Amino acid sequence: MLAYTTPFIGGLLIGTTAVALLFLLGRIAGIAGIVWGAISAQPDNAWRWMFIVGLVVGPVLYHLLAQVPNPQASTLPWWQAVAGGLLVGFGTKLGGGCTSGHGVCGIGRLSPRSLVATMTFMATGIVTVYVIRHLLAGYLP
Amino acid sequence: MKAIVGLLCGIVFGIGLAMSGMTDTAKVLGFLDVSGNWIPDLAFVMGGAVLVTLIAFRFVPLMKRPLLNPRFTLPTVRVIDGRLLGGAAIFGIGWGVYGYCPGPALSALSYMDSKTGMFVIAMLVGMALANKVAPG
Q1: Residues 6+ apart with CB under 8 A from B58
Q2: Which end of chain B is more exposed for a tag (fewer CB within 10 A), N or C?
């Protein structure tokens, strides 16, 4: 059980941030939405850009202070990074949220929409990994 | 002040992501690989995060207004339609293809791997494409 303490505390931190953002700014901590708001130049945008800066700074602080090494770089080919990125961007914009917006905040708000979205992306994520790792293993470049 | 709140929230969120293993594609894909060598970590991340929001989100919106803004900005769409299902389905496929969702992808930029940069640029292009095809 102890092995899962760190992920659990990480989760608590993520949830606490979502609460702080709602309490202070009245905003939902959905990263896809924050990113889209930032690049599409919404009004009152400074907090979004600073949030994104924080997202990059946070892990630097964590790995430095907790003396935990950075995770291993992915061994997957670059085209999978590009394909994955395109689909993630397209899907989160179309579906109005990602793991944080629908998964953490939406479920926290007891939104049926977000619950359905979360079950959907979990399901297709699981199927995709199954297909790539177990059905197509050896056939991909 | 709002920019400082944004920065601090982003930092704590980023620490949470790094600490929980979400910035490690091997862990994320291991979590989604239920029929293989399943890595359950991410269930605890989601559990921890949702535990906090489920409780606190009952109370925060009862305030007249958030501390630093005149009003709450909450999602108003309530329909479960093809757009929601299709979008979520496509997002999940992309998540499974490489192992990043939007937050961890941005946080992982700090590890300076060029493929993460490609993922993030492709993600922004994907968002812009979706906005062209189906604005709103």
Answers
A1: none
A2: C
Residue B26 pLDDT exceeds 90: yes
**What is the structure's pLDDT at A36?**
97
3-class DSSP state for residue A26?
coil
Q: Which two tokens stand for residue A102?
A: 């629908």
For chain B, the residue count is 136
Which chain B residues contact residue A72 at CB under 8 A?
24, 26
Q: Mind telling me how many Å the CA of B95 is from chain A's nearest CA?
A: 6
Please give the pLDDT value at position A2: 65
Quick check: is A141 in a domain?
no
Taking 50 as the pLDDT cut, the residues of chain A under it are none
Number of domains comprising chain A:
1
Tokens matching residue A25: 């700014």
Say how far residue A90 (Cα) sits from the centre of its chain: 14
Instruction: Establish if A82 belongs to a structural domain.
Output: yes
Residue A63 lies in a domain: yes
Cα of A4 vs its chain's centroid, Å: 19
Mean pLDDT of B61-90: 95
- Print the domain residue range for A43: 2-135
Question: How large is the ipTM?
Answer: 0.96
Q: Do A8 and B45 touch (CB under 8 A)?
A: yes
Interface residue B38 vs chain A (CB under 8 A): no
Binary contact (B119, A84; C-beta < 8 A) = yes
- DSSP symbol at B78: -
Task: Look at residue A46 and tell me if it is in a domain.
Answer: yes
Q: What type of residue is A39?
A: I
* CA–centroid distance for A40 within its chain: 19
- At residue A1, the pLDDT reads 54
Contact between chains at B15 and A9 (C-beta distance less than 8 A): no
Q: What is the pLDDT of residues B27-40, one digit of tens each?
A: 999 999 999 899 99
